[in-house]
Recover the amino acids of this structure.
């Protein structure tokens, strides 16, 4: 197995002949382990249902394998990795076919998912359950009373849950073991929480802080432990979480969490819980693990020397991109050295090559947490002993060295940010905020953009980030960023694109618009992954776009791969696009979302005969067009909403009617739903003027509830 495989640590756990899983083989699809093969037979311990259940629990906690296939001499039995009660399927080996059940074609075609849909439910995956329970645990813990009668509060709840995760990881991975507990006279973390042993927990945390150092174990050495003030109800909430209780239903889980197997990148998803509602305010969201792997693979694919990379994330958030990249660097270093790196080697690699900043202090804590877990992953026993006993071997402090947080040092646009103001990085790797602030608020990003004079569509902060990213990179540096699709595909972004392309060269653009609902929860907009590098100024001191320059444009489509936790890039979804064409008009990026070269040629021929747009403008104009209204607008306070009464006499068309058929029938129209939307964020008088006469079958209001406004069309009145 290659050391630099994206899931090398997990594969080692799966295939280790002396490990706790001992899989005989793994079926890998597009770089993602999908099916685990285990040997059955009369002598196999898997004949014991309890042993088989334990095996599935361990594999489920990895969050990769979907199906466990136990192979007996005459029979193969398939089980879901998730906890689907009583689920199994058998196949006589004599009946096996190359295109039959449980063949590779059966998996790749998606037929197996059609037969067993409950085996592939996303909500049953360990990451979804863990993140859901984390959010609910923080919510419940925040309202619990402290011993002095005050509420615990969200910040303290986040910190307590984070410590619980970190300590659980240390215990489950054998770093904090029975000899360590005996030496420090403390019990297991689960027992201490269940027994509400406040002094024991304070002693455990104090010992860990002394032995491991790090930025995550206690917020302030001068203050007493948060656990000492926690009330009994708070201990019960944490105990339920540690036992993997389904918090929403108060039901015990068939599959408990085992941090011995849960991957580091997945744990960095506690960002969802730590930042809560503030992430929405900053328009910053958790990056899914499989998307993070694709982004890091793209970012490092063209690297000349992985071990010479200096990587910076200006909005590091949970640290999942930095953590994924750091694990790749560890794999590359171990492949080169042909041995497992020692803890000292890993620390040196981290301190010299991984850097991040973020406005949120909580986010940087989680990034430190994730990077520490990567340092500790699969340590040799000698390293563990040294970490616990050698005063010179500690987890390195990361805050104010590798990670910077807060409104000054952590702000990507601040002059006090010690990382963003240096052209020393080889790779800028980031999922920046996707915020479009309203007209009243201003910040350092606005001041920086005004000073630079760069185009910025709708004050989109992601645009400011990519402008600024070029200033962080050294010669031959590159950036790989996750951007909102609208930033590059909206007509209003053309000025920004044209100007930006004179200073950066696009190498690869991956449009995940077709996977929006499958990649992100909470209805986040579609995203694009962009790999680019700063241009070299021409001999005439001008930034130019060569006419022969092209870039790769990928538009992957939804397929069965996402059910297995992978994102597939197929050759049929790859296009070569001329950069100058996009500098003139970004329309081709939209057209190529569904069309290939033949479609483009046909489209060009049809345009010669006229377009629908000709009915909206020019001498052949027959229709008027106007932007509609917003049903929801987070920038408008509720008390400023206005009555929708001026629209009550107009016909109303629900967008889902158009999904079935693009032709509007009279039967599709209904009365304006005044009870459903009695008030609106705003109602421009010009919209009312757009419909001057009594409503007819051609005059209607189109509304997309919960999203941006649709356009309204009506026939032009004769002059």
């Amino acid at each position: 197995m290659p050391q630099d495989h994206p899931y090398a640590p997990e594969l080692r756990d799966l295939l280790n002949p002396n490990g706790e899983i001992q899989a005989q083989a793994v079926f890998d699809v597009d770089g993602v382990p999908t099916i685990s093969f285990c040997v059955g037979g009369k002598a196999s311990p898997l004949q014991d249902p309890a042993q088989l259940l334990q095996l599935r629990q361990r594999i489920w906690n990895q969050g990769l394998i979907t199906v466990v296939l136990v192979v007996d001499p005459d029979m193969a039995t398939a089980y879901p990795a998730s906890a689907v009660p009583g689920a199994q399927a058998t196949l006589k080996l004599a009946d096996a076919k190359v295109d039959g059940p449980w063949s590779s074609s059966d998996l790749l075609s998606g037929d197996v998912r059609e037969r067993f849909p409950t085996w592939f439910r996303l909500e049953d995956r360990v990451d979804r359950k863990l993140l859901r329970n984390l959010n609910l645990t923080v919510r419940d813990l925040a309202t619990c009373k402290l011993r002095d009668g005050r509420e615990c509060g969200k910040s303290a709840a986040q910190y307590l849950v984070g410590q619980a995760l970190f300590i659980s990881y240390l215990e489950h991975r054998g770093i904090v073991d029975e000899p360590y507990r005996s030496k420090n006279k403390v019990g297991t973390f689960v027992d201490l929480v269940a027994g509400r042993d406040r002094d024991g927990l304070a002693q455990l945390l104090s010992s860990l802080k002394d032995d491991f150092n790090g930025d995550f174990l206690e917020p302030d050495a001068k203050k007493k432990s948060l656990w000492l003030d926690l009330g009994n109800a708070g201990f019960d909430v944490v105990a339920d979480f540690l036992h993997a209780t389904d918090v929403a239903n108060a039901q015990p889980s068939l599959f408990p969490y085992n941090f011995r197997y849960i991957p580091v990148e997945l744990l960095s998803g506690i960002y969802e819980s730590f930042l809560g509602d503030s992430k929405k305010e900053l328009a910053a969201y958790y990056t899914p693990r499989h998307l993070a792997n694709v982004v890091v693979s793209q970012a490092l694919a063209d690297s000349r020397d992985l071990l010479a990379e200096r990587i910076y994330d200006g909005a590091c958030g949970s640290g999942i991109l930095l953590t994924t990249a750091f694990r790749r660097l560890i794999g590359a270093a171990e492949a080169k050295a042909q041995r497992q790196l020692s803890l000292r080697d890993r620390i040196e690699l981290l301190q010299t090559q991984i850097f991040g900043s973020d406005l949120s202090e909580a986010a940087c804590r989680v990034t430190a947490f994730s990077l520490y877990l990567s340092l500790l992953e699969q340590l040799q026993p000698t390293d563990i002993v040294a970490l616990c006993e050698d005063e010179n071997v500690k987890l390195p402090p990361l805050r104010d060295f590798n990670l910077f947080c807060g409104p000054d040092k952590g702000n990507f646009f601040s002059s006090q940010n010690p990382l963003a103001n240096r052209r020393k990085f080889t790779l800028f790797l980031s999922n920046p905020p996707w915020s479009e602030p309203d007209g009243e608020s201003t910040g350092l990003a606005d001041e920086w953009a005004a000073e630079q004079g760069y185009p910025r569509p709708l004050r989109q902060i992601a645009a400011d980030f990519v402008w600024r990213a070029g200033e962080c990179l050294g010669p031959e540096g590159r950036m790989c960023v996750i951007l909102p699709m609208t930033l590059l595909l909206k007509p209003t972004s053309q000025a920004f694109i044209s100007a930006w392309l004179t200073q950066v060269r696009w190498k690869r653009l991956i449009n995940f618009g077709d996977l929006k609902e499958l990649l992100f929860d909470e209805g986040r907009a579609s995203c694009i992954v962009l790999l680019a590098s700063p241009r070299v100024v021409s001999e005439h001191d001008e930034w130019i776009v060569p006419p022969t320059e092209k870039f790769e444009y990928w538009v992957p489509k939804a397929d069965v791969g996402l059910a297995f936790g992978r994102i597939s890039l197929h050759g049929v979804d790859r296009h070569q696009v001329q950069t100058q064409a996009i500098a003139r008009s970004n329309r081709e990026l939209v057209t190529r979302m569904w069309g290939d070269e033949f479609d483009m040629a046909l489209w060009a021929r049809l345009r010669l005969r006229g377009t629908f747009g000709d009915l909206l403008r020019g001498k052949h104009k027959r229709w008027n067009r106007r932007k509609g209204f917003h049903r929801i607008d987070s920038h408008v306070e509720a008390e400023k909403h206005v009555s929708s009464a001026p629209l009550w006499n107009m016909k109303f068309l629900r967008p889902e009617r158009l999904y079935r058929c693009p032709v509007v029938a009279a039967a599709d129209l209904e009365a304006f739903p005044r009870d459903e939307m009695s008030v609106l964020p705003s109602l421009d008088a010009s919209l009312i003027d757009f419909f001057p006469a009594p409503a007819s079958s051609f005059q209607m209001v189109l509304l997309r509830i919960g999203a941006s406004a649709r356009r309204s069309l009506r026939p032009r009145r004769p002059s």
